[in-house]
Amino acid sequence: MNPDYWFQRNVFVTGASGFLGSWICEKLLELKANVVVLVRDHVPHSRLNRENLPVTRVDGCLEDYHTLERALNEYEIQTVFHLGAQTIVSIANRSPLGTFESNIRGTYNLLEACRKTQTLKNLVIASSDKAYGDQLKLPYDESFPLQGSHPYDVSKSCSDLLASAYYTSYKLPVCITRCGNFYGGGDLNFNRLIPGTIRSIINGEVPVIRSDGKFVRDYLYIEEAISAYLLLAERMETQSIHGEGFNFSNEIQKTALEIVEMILDLMGQKDMKPEILGQASNEIPKQYLSAEKARTVLKWEHQYSIEDGLKKTISWYRDFLPKK
Questions:
Q1: Known active-site residue 152
Q2: Model's pTM, two decimal places?
Q3: Model pLDDT, residue 138
Q4: With 97 labelled, which of 33, 164, 262, 315 sits at a CA distance of 20 to 30 A?
Q5: How far apart are CA 17 and CA 26, in angstroms?
Q6: In this structure, are residues 110 and 70 in contact, taking their beta carbons and an 8 Å threshold?
Q7: Tell me, what's the pLDDT at 283?
Q8: CA 15, 20, 24, 25 torsion-angle sign
Q9: Secondary structure element (H or E) that encloses residue 200, with its range
Q10: How far apart are the C-alpha atoms of 120 and 172, rounded to whole Å?
C-alpha cells in the first residue's frame, strides 16, 4: 500500500458497520484518508462503533438513490468501496426479495450515482466467489461465466454484470473483487462457521456444522482482504484494468470439518467432536478460487497461513466475548 495515495483522499464506504467495512474504515483512517460512510443500522458492537472511528456518517440505505447521489457529490468523493450487501446465504434463502433489493437494486443505484459524480476516480465493488455459481472445473478463474443459481449467488452475479455494463457503456472506472470466505476478529455474524465455532468453544458448548462437513471453501484472513482492496484501488490509477474482476485467495482449500478441527486444536479442545447437522441447502459443495491474475497483474501476495490467521482470530474473540 502507498500511504501517500490515501493521504486526505475522500473515500466513501458502503456497508461500513459490517465486518469488512469496519476493518477498511479503520485502515483508511490510519492512512489519513477522509472517510465518509453509509450506515443503515446502528450496530453497537461493530468495530465502527466500538472503536468510535472518526468517520463522517450518512444515515441511509443503498435502496435510497438520492441519498447516495447527494453524499457522493457533497463530499466530493474520489474513491468508493461498495461493500454494503446482504451477505448471509441462509438469510438469502429465507428472504430472497430483501437480498435482491439490497444487492441488485443497491448496486445499480450506487453505479448510477457514481456515474453522476464528477470527482470520482475509482470504484471497487465487493462481489463473491459465489457469483460464478456451480462450475465443473476448479479452481474458478476470472474467465469463468457468472452463473449463480440460488438467491444469494444470483444477486452477486447480477451485481457483477451491472458493474461490467456501466464500464462498457459509460467507461465508469470500476473493478470487482471476488473472494472466498473472510474470517477474523470483528465478524459478528455467528451463524458463520468460524466465529460460531469459536463462540461455542468459549461457552463450553459443542460446535455445530450446518452442512455435512464436506463443503470445500477457501478462507481469507481479513487483514489480507484489506490489503487486496486498497492495492486494487491504487492500481486502478496507473493500470488499464477498469471493468475487470479479480479473485483474491490464499489458494488453500479446506472442508468445513477441517476448519472446525483446526479451531478445536488451537483452542485446546482437540477431543471435542462437532455436531454435524447435514441441513445446509442451496449451497454449492465445492468452491475455491485461483488468484493467479491478482498475483501477476497486481503483484498481490497473501501473507497469513490459515493457522496464523485463526490464532489472531481466536485471540480477538477471547478478549471480546463475555465469559459464562
A1: yes
A2: 0.93
A3: 94
A4: 164
A5: 11
A6: no
A7: 79
A8: positive
A9: helix 193-202
A10: 9
- CA dist., res. 140 & res. 225, Å (int): 18
Instruction: Report the distance separating Cα 324 and Cα 317, nearest Å.
Output: 14
Strand order in the sheet with 174-179: 56-59, 34-39, 10-14, 79-82, 122-126, 174-179, 245-248
CB atoms within 10 A of CB 93: 16
Three cell numbers written together for 45 = 458492537
Residues 269 and 124 placed together within one structural domain of the fold: no
Cα–Cα distance for residue pair 324/249, rounded to 1 Å: 36
Q: Which domain holds residue 66?
A: 3-182+219-248
Whether residue 312 sits in one domain with residue 228: no
Reading the block at residue 155, the C-alpha cell is 444477486
Taken as a whole, the chain contains a residue count of: 324
For residue 12, the domain's CATH number is 3.40.50.720
Would you state the cell numbers that stand for residue 47, as one nine-digit string? 468495530
Selection from 6, 2, 11 nearest residue 55 by Cα: 11
pLDDT value of residue 50:
80
Residues 252-279: tens digit of each pLDDT: 999 999 999 999 999 999 999 999 998 8
Task: Mark the ranges of the chain whose per-residue pLDDT is less than 50.
Answer: none
The active-site residue, picked from 152, 167, 288, 317, is 152
Asked if the bond preceding 96 is cis, omega within 30° of 0, the reply is no
Please enumerate in sequence order all residues whose Cβ is within 8 A of that of 141, keeping only pairs 6 or more positions apart, or say none: 247, 289, 290, 292, 293
State the Cα–Cα distance between residues 243 and 256, nearest whole angstrom. 33
Q: Cβ neighbours of residue 281 under 8 Å, at least 6 residues apart?
A: 93
Give how far Cα 292 sits from Cα of 212, 234, 300, Å: 30, 19, 9
In a domain, 96, yes or no: yes
